[in-house]
């Protein structure tokens, strides 16, 4: 035989052997598991890596409340504050995950949530909305009164005299309340203490926080443990909550990050009863996700999870803020905000809260569609496809009867500062396409691939034999290896034909 024939035979035999090997391997594995094991290796070459590195990405929508009857409330003519919501005030947000260290079982990275913050005037309620003038409660005085009532109640008698130059309502631009809110009291105190003078909500909410995560990756840790947190800032307890752990059992308080997730990636093959918790860094706690229902999104079947259930009782370590017992559907975040100010988070417009807001306000319209926080998660890949992260920041006010009449009117109220919604951006089209293939093609392709491997192995073996026999065709090959049988069949058929000829004659 010529050398080229030997090459052909060798290549065919290699292809046949490889096909047999792939068929045997396919008999003992699940293609979905193979794909998942590659996904959780978290390689730099992953097609979804770029989206993760530049996350979180999306739009931050802020809403503020304008008090329309400040004079009437101050004078006592109105017993309830009338508020009008203004928003959205939209900002584009792009984060960045900087990988610090990586091995086969974990990856350590620093999360920069707000690398890009860009105002989007055309997507806001009006391009000049930041210049609009609104009236708001003076949350500096109200927050200070709450702290004084809790820490030094006897100082209440001189509190109002010291702040007699401060109005209980403040009128200024929306930009001022979001980015530059300061008062003479804060400026004075900042010179003699660690109190920060600027308490504007977005100025402080979008400040960089130290977030260094160490998370599990790789098959050795198990598919179900992919991207579950080992440590945050080299601790298992959220740093701001360490003082609480001395007073409460850390197992009953949502401060331990071990096994939680950072909300960027989740384990594959999630089931409705799979325990999922995320680190909510802006509220310095771990939030459990609650499965709600299945929902179709971008051609994918997803699981919808809520971040806070209506009327959910807060943990015992977060049910009080500076002596004020919080209603259901709220939790304390005072350890996590500027100047340790009295603060509690709820869903927007007090949706899902047992607080009777209608006793103190007019103008809120709580409803699930606009105010419920949720995440849509594709369960096979464990990739979130969208989320609307919604929370409202409130100041819980105690009974202020020992204070002046202008403060007493705010007794037992919850004073909203603002509320926000982070809407996750659309995933790139190729990522959605890969997810669709993983969900809809991979689970059904295994039997077809196994048949293909068998056919390919048979064809390759026959091709090698044909080449070895001088490039015979299939008919010639059949005569060569089955000559006697073919000859016998031809003789029989010939005899039958002769008999028919005789019968016809």
UniProtKB/TrEMBL annotation:
Q: Where in the cell is it found?
A: Cell membrane
Family affiliation: Belongs to the CD36 family.
Its encoding gene is what?
Dere\GG19867
Protein origin, superkingdom:
Eukaryota
Q: Which GO terms describe its molecular function?
A: scavenger receptor activity
Q: What is this protein called?
A: Scavenger receptor class B member 1
Q: Which UniProt keywords apply?
A: Cell membrane, Glycoprotein, Membrane, Transmembrane, Transmembrane helix
Keyword Ion transport attached: no
Which GO cellular component terms, listed alphabetically, does the Swiss-Prot or TrEMBL entry include?
A: cytoplasm; plasma membrane
User: Membrane-crossing residues?
Assistant: 6-34
Could you tell me which InterPro entries the record lists for this protein?
A: CD36_fam
């Amino acid at each position: 035989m010529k050398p080229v024939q030997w090459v052909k035979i060798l290549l065919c035999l290699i292809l046949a052997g490889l096909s047999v090997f792939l068929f045997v391997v396919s008999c003992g594995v699940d293609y979905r598991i193979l794909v998942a094991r590659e996904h959780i290796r978290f390689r730099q070459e992953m097609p979804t890596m770029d989206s993760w590195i530049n996350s979180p990405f999306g739009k931050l929508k802020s809403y503020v409340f304008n008090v329309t009857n400040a004079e009437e409330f101050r004078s006592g003519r109105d017993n309830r504050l009338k508020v009008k919501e203004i928003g959205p005030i939209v900002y584009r947000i792009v984060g960045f995950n900087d990988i610090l260290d990586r091995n086969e079982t974990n990856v350590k990275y620093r999360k920069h949530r707000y690398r890009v913050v860009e105002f989007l005037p055309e997507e806001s309620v009006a391009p000049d909305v930041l210049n609009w003038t609104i009236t708001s409660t003076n949350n500096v005085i109200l927050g200070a009164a709450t702290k004084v009532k809790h820490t030094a109640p006897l100082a209440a008698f001189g509190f109002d005299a010291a702040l007699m130059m401060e109005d209980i309502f403040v009128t200024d631009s929306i930009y001022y309340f979001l980015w530059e809110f300061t008062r003479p009291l804060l400026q004075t105190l900042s010179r003699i203490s660690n109190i920060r003078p600027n308490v504007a909500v977005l100025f402080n909410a979008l400040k960089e926080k130290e977030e260094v995560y160490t998370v599990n990756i790789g098959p050795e840790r198990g598919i179900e443990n992919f991207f579950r947190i080992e440590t945050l800032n080299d601790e298992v307890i959220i740093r701001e909550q360490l003082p609480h752990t001395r007073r409460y059992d850390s197992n009953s308080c949502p401060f331990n990050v071990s096994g939680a997730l950072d909300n960027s990636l989740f384990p594959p093959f999630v089931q409705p009863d799979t325990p999922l918790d995320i680190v909510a860094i802006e509220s310095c706690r771990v939030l459990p996700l609650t499965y709600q229902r299945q929902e179709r999104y971008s051609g994918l079947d997803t699981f919808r999870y809520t971040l806070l259930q209506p009327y959910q009782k807060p943990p015992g370590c977060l049910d009080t803020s500076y002596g004020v017992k919080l209603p259901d559907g709220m939790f304390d975040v005072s350890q996590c905000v500027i100047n340790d100010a009295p603060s509690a988070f709820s869903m927007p417009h007090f949706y899902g809260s047992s607080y009777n807001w209608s006793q103190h306000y007019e103008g809120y319209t709580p409803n699930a569609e606009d105010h419920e926080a949720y995440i849509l998660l594709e369960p096979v890949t464990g990739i979130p496809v969208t989320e609307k992260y919604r929370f409202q920041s409130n100041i819980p006010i105690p009974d202020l009867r020992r204070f002046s009449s202008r403060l007493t009117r705010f007794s037992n109220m919850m004073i909203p500062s603002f509320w926000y919604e982070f809407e996750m951006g659309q995933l790139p089209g190729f990522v959605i396409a890969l997810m669709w293939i993983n969900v809809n093609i991979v689970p059904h392709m295994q039997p077809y691939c196994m048949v293909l491997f068998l056919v390919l192995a048979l064809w390759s073996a026959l091709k090698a034999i044909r080449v070895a026999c001088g490039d015979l065709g299939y008919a010639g090959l059949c005569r060569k290896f089955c000559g006697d049988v073919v000859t016998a069949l031809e003789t029989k058929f010939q005899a039958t034909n002769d008999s028919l000829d005789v019968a016809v004659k």
